[in-house]
Amino acid sequence: MAYDTDNIFAKILRGEIPCDKIYEDDWVLAFNDIAPAAPVHVLVIPKGAYVSMDDFTATASDAEIVGFYKAVGKVARDLSLVEPGYRTLNNTGVHGGQEVPHFHVHIFGGKPLGPMLTRSSFR
Ligand code: AMP
Fold first, then answer.
1. Pocket residues for ligand 1 (CB within 6 Å)?
2. pTM exceeds 0.85 for this model
3. Which pLDDT belongs to residue 120?
4. Which of 9, 19, 50, 100 would disulfide-bridge 31, Cβ 3.0–4.6 Å?
5. Residue at 2 is within a domain
6. Greatest CA separation for the chain
């Protein structure tokens, strides 16, 4: 799938629409999810134009991949999530339920999050 430069996260990266920024460095931007599913719900996105986890891991440079995942860990530490625990999630493609076609990792925390998927999801 070709990268859509009009997707909402591309617009956030270009500063065309606002976000509630948590962290930024050379590799990533992290901001609060607009429709949080937990008391802490942050999105970490690479600054490069990657459609999905698949695109990112297949085509991003080693420096971008290292920079991205180091930033995910740093954001979780900075938000004091390590000791109580937290969850990271990526949705890829149609079966993954991906809504925004710019690679991103969700960080959820702030309460016990329960099981990853319910058994009733396995149908
Ligand atoms: P996904 O289903 O993994 O693609 O998740 C996309 C996420 O982006 C959802 O959790 C949305 O609530 C979130 N989202 C969509 N638009 C915005 C926005 N403008 N600012 C912050 N989060 C957003």
1. 8, 19, 33-35, 43, 91, 97-100
2. yes
3. 74
4. 19
5. no
6. 42
